[in-house]
Amino acid sequence: MIGLILRRFGFAAFTIGFVSLIMFAAVEALPGNVCTSFLQRFAQGPRLERCIEQQGLNRPAIERYADWVGGAVQGDFGYSLKKRKPINELIGERFANTALLGGLAALLAIPLAVFLGIAAGVRRDKPLDLSLSGAAMLAMTIPEFVTATALIYVFAIVLQWFPAVTIMRSGMGFMDMLPNIVLPVLVLSAVLIAHIMRMMRASVIDVMASDYVQMARLKGVPEREIIRRHVVPNAMIPALNVIALTVAWLLAGVVVVEKVFNYPGLGTLMIQAIYDRDLPLVQAIALIFSVIYVGVNLLADLAALMIDPRLRRKGH
Amino acid sequence: MLNLLATVVSRPSGAIGLTLTLAHVFMALLAPLIAPFDPTMQNADTILLAPSAEHWMGTDTLGRDIFSRVLHGGRLAIAVTFAAAVVATTWGSFAGIFFGTVGGRIDEFSMRIVDAFLSMPWLLFLLLIISIGGAGPATIIPTLGFFYGVAVLRVIRGAAMQVAARDFVTAAKARGEKLWPILSREMFPNLSDIILVEGAMRWSWMLLAFSSLSFLGFGATPPTPDWGLMVAQERGLLATAPWAVFWPCLALSSLIIGINLLADAIGKALGLDRASAMAV
To answer: How far apart are CA A20 and CA A286, in angstroms?
Structure first.
């Protein structure tokens, strides 16, 4: 058991190492370097030299990679070219804002999606299932910025219930912030709910067709009890994986949604950094997102180990 | 082929999907012929006009005819994502069939790498690449093609493992057939259905990705008429001129939904169950 858990941790560490290497290598492999792409046509003379000096570009790539990773582990991501500040100073508050947005969306979406997925799966091909599945298909295929625009039109312009863009000051209380984040959270949750619900539904349908559910029916166990005792726990296991995978959506979606609502999070900071060609900042944010993503997947793996004793046997 | 088409169209979702997809493809192809105005022509006298007999969908902040821009707005997105979908499906299914057939150590090692690739948020990686290589099709097609190809690889490899375990493949191996004839004559014909559906599904997700990139300002560049870019540009005046945002949103969503429904219907017609299709 401990060996299994350690192996999961090992794979997560390997993945983060691999992802950071790819991110570093991508910047190295493409023509130019951090300084020339930032300075563009001003990349010459003392300005270029100063930038190269500051970013330490005159050292070998392996050394710089080791420094970058070593620093990142300790929470030091280097200097932003554009803002001329340590990157962790820029990230701090933004990170909290994004975590709030993503956390609320996940908190709203995951239980609701699991519940709806069970409801749809149990009533397969009935009107409830068909309408839920149809709505999920729409939520998955319509781009987030379209959904967001539609919600802004209805709730911010026609009904005027919530603001169309986020207005945030530092030190703002949670209750003052709430109206600002309702719409972004709704947009993010819609996609999450759709994906998780679909998986949960498919998984419930699979379990309902299994022998042990058949057996329980033949024994005369009431349908509610079957769903509670047999169907839900077993259907949760494959769904857990998908819940973790949809966090990829959440993280990518967060960038688009933050941009639509002008929300002061990591996503908007990253977009701005790309506009500014501020590569160290872009790399740092991409790395943070990847670590969160890998971490969530690790949690899902560990949770699956806890729920499903079969996974704990040798050979997995 | 005709049989397949008939089965696809016999479902309402398949019929709707096929109609939407074909309508959009024709619209994109014929846009220069049927558009009433030049989509990039600015006109100071026709700024933000509401829909009328002359401008069916109204005009935008620069006085351009929105109907003409919507007609042209899918051309770049469809071309870029179709090319990227072909890249992804080709390399992904080739590698997937290969690994699924040979199995063993090579397969196991490669799948670790594939898993690592699947466990990075690819949109962020795409943004990283764009911030170095610049926006535009030359960066976007290979990057989207590569990343979606990894997901295709995963799916096709799973399917290929099942085919590889069947008797006719064992027989071919026993006859002493070389690897390539086994891949091309035994494996591929039995996987082409899944590859087709997989490719179509990925195409619809790529459209979603590309339009999001355009919306963020890293896909199409002005003055190219592009749905995602149009929404980004006209969004500020949503309260006064909702038509300038509504039509590109509708066009984009209907195309993605159309391809998605079509891919789903083809899959069902071929007897493939993709209930848990993930857009990784």
So the answer is: 9
For residues B280 and A71, give the distance between their C-alpha atoms in angstroms, rounded to a whole number.
30
| Residues B126, B139: Cα–Cα separation, whole Å | 9
Whether A298 contacts A8, CB under 8 Å = yes
pLDDT value at position A170? 66
Q: Say which CATH topology domain B10-32+58-279 has.
A: MetI-like fold (1.10.3720)
Query: B122-133 vs A266-275: helix axis angle to the nearest 10?
Result: 20
Task: Please give the single-letter amino acid code of residue B79.
Answer: A
Q: What are the Cα distances from residue B169, in Å, to B54, B190, B194, B196?
A: 64, 11, 18, 22
Query: Is there a contact between A3 and A266 (Cβ–Cβ < 8 Å)?
Result: no
Q: Which amino acid is at A143?
A: P
Residues B79/B208, Cβ–Cβ less than 8 Å: no
- In the structure encoding, which two tokens stand for residue A258, read together? 């933050």
Exposed/middle/buried for residue B226 (C-beta within 10 Å: 0-12, 13-18, 19+): buried
Looking at residue B276, its pLDDT comes to 39
For the cut 70, the answer to whether the pLDDT of residue A165 exceeds it is yes
Say whether pLDDT at A124 is over 90: no
This prediction has a pTM of 0.87
CA–CA dist A277, B223 (Å, integer): 22
- The identity of residue B199, as a single letter, is G
Residue A73 has pLDDT above 60, yes or no: yes
Q: Give tens-digit pLDDT for B77-89.
A: 999 999 999 999 9
Query: Which residues of chain A lie closer than 8 angstroms to B112, CB-CB?
Result: 11, 14
CA distance A313 to B197: 36
CA A315 to chain B, closest CA, distance in angstroms equals 14
Q: CA-to-CA distance for B191 and B163, rounded, in angstroms?
A: 8
Residues from chain B contacting residue A23 (CB–CB below 8 Å): 125, 128
Q: How far apart are CA B80 and CA B224, in angstroms?
A: 14
Instruction: Report CB contact under 8 Å: B127, A152.
Output: no
